[in-house]
Write a structure and sequence with these properties.
The chain is α+β, with helices and mostly antiparallel strands and about 90 residues long. The chain has 3 helices and 3 strands; from the N terminus they run ββαβαα. The chain has a 3-stranded antiparallel β-sheet. The longest helix has 14 residues, at about 55-70. The radius of gyration is 12 Å and the shape is globular. The N and C termini lie far apart (about 25 Å). About 25% of the residues are buried.
């Protein structure tokens, strides 16, 4: 089963959230519904980037790598290199 690493951007404060899931659309709805305590006050969110992996283990490894870059030049380059189709995706908002 495929797993995904996703980056969300808050439309409220412009900040980012990096996560891993098997269902990106459902996870975005979860965040935007205020069900994730750590992001509740920063909603709504839009998807900035989605990366696909063959299994959860690989996705978790990549999530950890991206989180280690957060706020740095590598993170900025990753965001800037994301496709316009992925930027602004707001499933179910």
């Amino acid at each position: 089963m495929s797993h995904y690493v996703y980056i969300l951007q808050s439309l409220k404060d412009g900040g980012y959230y990096v996560g891993e899931t098997a269902d990106v659309e459902a996870r975005l709805r979860f965040h935007n519904a205020g069900l994730q305590r750590s992001t509740r006050s920063r909603r709504p969110f839009k998807i900035i980037l989605i990366e696909t992996f063959a299994d959860r283990s690989a996705a978790l490894k990549r999530e950890k790598e991206i989180k280690s870059w957060k706020g740095g030049n590598k993170f900025k380059k990753l965001i800037e290199g994301s496709s316009p189709a992925q930027r602004g995706t707001t499933f179910g908002t």
